[in-house]
Write a structure and sequence with these properties.
The protein has helices at about 30-60, 60-65, 80-85, 100-130, 135-145, 155-165, 170-195, 200-205, 210-220, 225-240, 245-250, 255-265, 275-305. The protein is an all-alpha fold. The termini are far apart.
Amino acid sequence: MSTEPRGKRPGRPSIGSGNEPSGRRPQKMTTGRFGLYAFLVITAAFFLTPLYVMLATSLKSMPEIREGNLLSWPIAPTVAAWVKAWSTACTGLNCTGLQVGFMNSVRILVPSVLLSISVGAVTGYTLSFWRPRGAEILFGALMMVAFVPYQVFIYPLVRIFSYAGLNNSLAGIVVVHTIFGLPTMTLIFRNHFAALPNELFRAARVDGAGFWRIFGQIMLPMAVPIIVVAMILQVTGIWNDFIFGLVFAGRENLPMTVQLNNIVNSTQGEREYNVDMAATMLTALVPLAVYFFSGRWFVRGIAAGAVKG
């Protein structure tokens, strides 16, 4: 009779014995896994190569750029082009760089994001739980507007804003971004709230809570992941916008993207490619930072119900 203790097999150490790691052994490199890794590497190189070229070119001097080594790293990196793009580059007749456009973009971005997310959250909450008369018609209209090209509405909005005195003003461009952000924000929040248990809403109603109390104390704290998703979408969309800023902002409120276009297309003597690339990188810093630091929250918010409903 074997003297091996019950529960153990000869020649196989128990978990936690310290003789060898526990768990599944890593799979061998198969053709499918190699193809997957190759695809991921090629895709990453495809998207990162333009970023690398812009960064490397922005750190080169013009004599080094003329040598034509596009993919080479600068021999003597310098941030002179970045300083010029920020402070002294000519955006048309004004040579004040992108610093003015950066502040204009911030002034446009902050109220537009806050208003569009706030109104979209309340509208989505209303369509999910309270369902007023004609809610389905309103939701269908919002969805139709979300897929209509916004270029169709530019001329009517220009005429309306001119009568209302909002054309070429900060308030006008904020209203435009809020209006065009509402369909998407309403869809996102409506689908998120619709996925929550209806018993929470009914229990709050039984306890005597009203519209705003249920929204502020119950629904809104549970919507933090989806608020992050909405914020990422709105920040990147509004910051990268060009046509609305060009048409509705006016000369005093031109965002960074419009001034970037003026820098690239303004030719006074020699075209300074390093300044153009530095200006492009400066304009893209905010969306890049949002993607790099909020990607985990974006995926978590999507998984929490952004596409449910």
